[in-house]
Structure to design on (482 residues):
């Protein structure tokens, strides 16, 4: 029976975690729908701050990563394809590797590294400083003031960053294709365009929606559980990164299985 | 205004902190919760404010049960509550002005009125010149004043104050005491204070209630 008890504890913990995630998502959605017009200015200001931090401040990081990834992917793919005499499939591979998979996934990983950690640490610090209690006591709904703007900010930022990542990675790929292999812009883009489908756009939108939720609510879960000491903050940040990464990879696999299998 | 019945609170280690607590404060009444550090005064204030769930028991404000229930969300602005913490409670990313203004803006008070009420509240503590500073850039005493200014600007019908005189200079203490006397004399305001008993407090018609750590507390009649 002891082994059953040992097995039961993490299972119960995991189910509690899932329940808390569902609770946070539902409460935040309902709180967002219940926002009054006169509260939009306050919540909008918080959302703009989140977009600036998660989106604008991450543009350089995303640009550099995407350019390098696009260039490296093209070199690797082109070397293999030219050996087989299948250079015309370069667009297919760029779409498969970058637009379908690595664009949304790597952008989410970068946002987890920068913003999910910051949200968890900030919410944890606010809990310790009684800021969340002060908001609730004074009639400021913490779901509306803290979680709605963070989710909206991460959602908008992630979408813009993914579009930016994909575009920049393709630009990086084209740059190498042009300079190293003399491929023209028209040939490159035709190859990419023929490989793209509406399903790719749908998959990107679904991934952005799911990833933004995972990033925000994992951070909120671990940040808002902090109650006693500053030493809990780094632990919460580490847990946020690990579980958010796991969730994003799982969701990515799930979307691929549902939309492409 | 405030009715507590058979309330039980757990200590952070999981052991019993308070049990069987019964209290009733009529509208306009004043209550002073006294007890040594660690006896649960601050947590009791949070329970009354609806931000901390008790282990068991009922808490009703203005006739509405907040525990068991949804805590502060139950009130949803119907009963204005002002809570000033002994330390903390101010949002670190907002200026003192915006900290005081946020609850008013969120309740939909017109912008002109918000500015007037915030200006008046900050002025009454001499904070007008520091209104643009963030909490980390000012002293503990100023943060304490900003907490009280936020409560003052809200004009709440239930005021909850945690150690309002603790750690203040005599001159600042006199200023806070004058404000406490104003709230205590206001028939539209119910005042609940939590203090450790090291400061002598003279307020009109204040009822004292002694809390002891791990005690079985009952309302003295």
């Amino acid at each position: 029976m002891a082994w059953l008890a040992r097995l039961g504890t993490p299972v119960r913990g995991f189910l509690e975690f899932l329940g808390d995630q569902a609770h946070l998502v539902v409460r935040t959605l309902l709180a967002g729908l219940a926002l009054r017009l006169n509260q939009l200015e306050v919540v909008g200001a918080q959302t703009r701050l989140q977009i600036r931090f998660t989106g604008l401040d991450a543009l350089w990081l995303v640009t550099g990563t995407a350019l390098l990834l696009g260039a490296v992917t093209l070199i690797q793919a082109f070397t293999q394809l030219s050996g087989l005499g299948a250079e015309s499939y370069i667009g297919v591979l760029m779409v498969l590797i970058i637009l379908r998979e690595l664009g949304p996934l790597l952008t989410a990983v970068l946002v987890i590294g920068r913003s999910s950690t910051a949200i968890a640490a900030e919410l944890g610090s606010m809990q310790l400083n009684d800021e969340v209690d002060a908001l609730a006591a004074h009639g400021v709904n913490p779901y509306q003031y803290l979680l709605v703007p963070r989710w909206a900010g991460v959602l908008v930022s992630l979408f813009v960053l993914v579009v930016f990542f994909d575009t920049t990675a393709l630009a990086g790929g084209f740059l190498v294709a042009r300079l190293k292999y003399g491929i023209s812009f028209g040939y490159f883009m035709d190859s990419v365009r023929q490989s793209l489908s509406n399903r790719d756009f749908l998959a990107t939108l679904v991934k952005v929606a799911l990833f933004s939720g995972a990033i925000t609510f994992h951070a909120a879960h671990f940040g808002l559980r902090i109650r006693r000491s500053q030493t809990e903050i780094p632990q919460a940040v580490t847990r946020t990164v690990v579980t958010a990464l796991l969730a994003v990879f799982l969701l990515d696999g799930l979307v691929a299985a549902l939309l492409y299998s | 205004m405030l009715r507590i019945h058979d309330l039980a609170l757990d200590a952070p280690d999981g052991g019993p902190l308070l049990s069987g607590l019964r209290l009733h404060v009529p509208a306009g009444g004043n209550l002073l919760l006294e007890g040594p550090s660690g006896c649960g005064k601050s947590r009791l204030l949070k329970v009354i404010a609806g931000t901390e769930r008790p282990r068991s028991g009922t808490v009703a404000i203005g006739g509405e049960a907040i525990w068991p229930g949804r805590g502060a969300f139950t009130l949803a602005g119907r009963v204005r509550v002002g809570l000033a913490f002994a330390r903390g409670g101010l949002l670190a990313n907002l200026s003192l002005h915006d900290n005081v203004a946020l609850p008013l803006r969120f309740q939909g008070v017109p912008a002109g009125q918000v500015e007037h009420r915030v200006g008046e509240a900050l002025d009454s503590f001499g904070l007008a010149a520091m209104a643009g500073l963030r909490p980390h850039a000012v002293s503990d005493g100023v943060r304490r004043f900003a907490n009280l200014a936020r409560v003052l600007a809200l004009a709440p019908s239930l005021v909850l104050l945690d150690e309002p005189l603790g750690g203040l200079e005599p001159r600042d203490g006199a200023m806070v005491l004058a404000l406490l006397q104003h709230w205590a004399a206001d028939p539209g305001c119910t005042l609940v204070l939590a203090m450790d008993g090291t400061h002598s407090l003279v307020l009109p018609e204040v009822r004292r209630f002694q809390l002891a750590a791990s005690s079985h507390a009952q309302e003295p009649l």
Remarks:
- The interface with chain A takes residues 12, 46, 49-52, 71-73, 75-77, 80-83, 85, 88-93, 102-103, 105-108, 150, 154, 160 of chain B (CB under 8 Å).
- Strands of chain B lie at 2-10, 16-25, 30-34, 56-61, 64-67, 81-84, 158-162, 190-195, 206-210, 215-216.
- The longest strand of chain B covers residues 16-25.
